[in-house]
Design brief:
Blueprint lengths: L5 H5 L5 E3 L1 H7 L2 E5 L10 H15 L7 E5 L3 H13 L2 E7 L4 H10 L2 E5 L10 H10 L4 E3 L7 H17 L6 E5 L4 H13 L4 E7 L4 H7 L30 E5 L1 H15 L5 H17 L4 E5 L14 H6 L7
Parallel strand pairs: 2-10, 3-4, 3-6, 4-5, 7-8, 7-10, 8-9
Antiparallel strand pairs: 1-2
Bound molecules: 4'-deoxy-4'-aminopyridoxal-5'-phosphate (PMP).
């Protein structure tokens, strides 16, 4: 028998997929870690499991407890699955600029969803801060605090990165990904740099984020936005991201991202979400910079199904001045 024991045991060990068209176009091996194949559908299942386990180990989360989080969606989705499987309930705070599909999915899964006005992090009514305050008012509740809880990056240090190292037989030249909390980039960077300091770590940033500027100048200054991407980009350097070795950063526009996801769909059969589009464009830019013959790994974070009403809606794209031409 070759089986996996339940939900948690099905998280991770995702395939590393060769993206044929992009590899051919660059002469590099462009490889995508298929995080959309996690059982909750995204890269955030790993962080969700690691954060819940951390609170169980510390004793803060006891049987029948409540998990509270502020999330743009995927962390919440991962958390609700993990909570349901372990007998916890979940309360999810979300900013009101996210796709309706994510809210509906969270509600379907059984979370109490609190959609709050989108305000900057420095405002006390920011969704993350509201989540933290609410958890404090409840008995037997924890705030998983994905942005500044380093159990998030530990998930990628202990699982995603060793898988990538093994799957590329140590031949990886560069790892590039966009960041929301920074957990994926920070955890993978730490592990890969320990295996070989020569692995080039590159941060991919959408417009309207401060991280490109932070990596390239040391100052987190916001670039001109906004971007229609969801779950990535940040105005601040989180505790997960801080002290991470990052060799370079690339910026990707929404138009580049949109053309990439439509091309991947029409020509290669994939149905990717917006952060994956940013990641693939960034991988192409890294390939152009390094030249042919390099092995470049990125993250295939989730599929397009949560973005049907926006990224895959012609009217929405037209309103944003974007084109699906590729
Ligand atoms: N892609 C998607 C679709 C996401 O939801 C997220 C997390 N918000 C990321 C990428 C970024 O991952 P991380 O939080 O580990 O930086």
């Amino acid at each position: 028998m070759d089986t996996k024991n339940g939900f948690a045991a099905t998280i991770g060990n995702t395939p590393l997929i060769r993206l044929a068209g992009l590899s051919k176009a660059t002469g590099c091996e462009i490889l995508g870690k298929a995080e959309f194949l996690n059982p909750g559908g995204s890269v955030k299942d790993r962080a969700a499991l690691w954060m819940v386990r951390e609170h169980e180990k510390s004793g803060a989360l006891k049987p029948g407890g409540i998990v509270v989080e502020g999330t743009a969606g995927n962390t919440g989705i991962g958390l609700v699955h993990v909570c349901n499987a372990r007998g916890y309930s979940s309360v999810i705070y979300m900013p009101d600029n996210q796709s309706p599909e994510k809210i509906e999915l969270l509600q379907t899964l059984g979370a109490e969803v609190r959609v709050v006005p989108t305000v900057p992090y420095k405002n006390d009514m920011n969704y993350q801060k509201q989540a933290g305050r609410f958890a404090e008012t409840l008995p037997n509740a924890v705030w998983t605090n994905q942005f500044d809880n380093v159990a998030n990056r530990l998930a990628h240090y202990e699982s995603t990165a060793p898988e990538i190292w093994r799957q590329t037989a140590g031949t990886i030249d560069s790892f590039v990904t966009s960041t929301g909390t920074g957990g994926t980039l920070a955890g993978v960077s730490r592990y890969l740099k320990e295996q070989s300091p020569d692995v080039r770590i590159v941060l991919a940033d959408p417009m309207g984020s401060a991280l490109y500027s932070w990596v390239t100048t040391g100052q987190p200054l916001m670039s001109e936005g906004p971007s229609i991407t969801e779950g990535i980009g940040n105005s601040r350097v989180t505790d997960n991201l801080i002290d991470t070795v990052i060799d370079d950063a690339v910026q990707v526009t929404d138009q580049e991202m949109v053309s990439m996801v439509y091309r991947q769909m029409a020509e290669e059969g994939w149905f990717f979400g917006s952060s994956t589009g940013i990641n693939l464009c960034a991988a192409m830019k890294v390939a152009e910079k390094l030249g042919p013959g390099h092995v470049i790994v990125t993250i295939l974070a989730d599929t397009g199904s949560k973005y049907q009403s926006r990224l895959f809606n012609a009217q929405f794209l037209a309103e944003k001045g974007l084109s699906s031409a590729h």
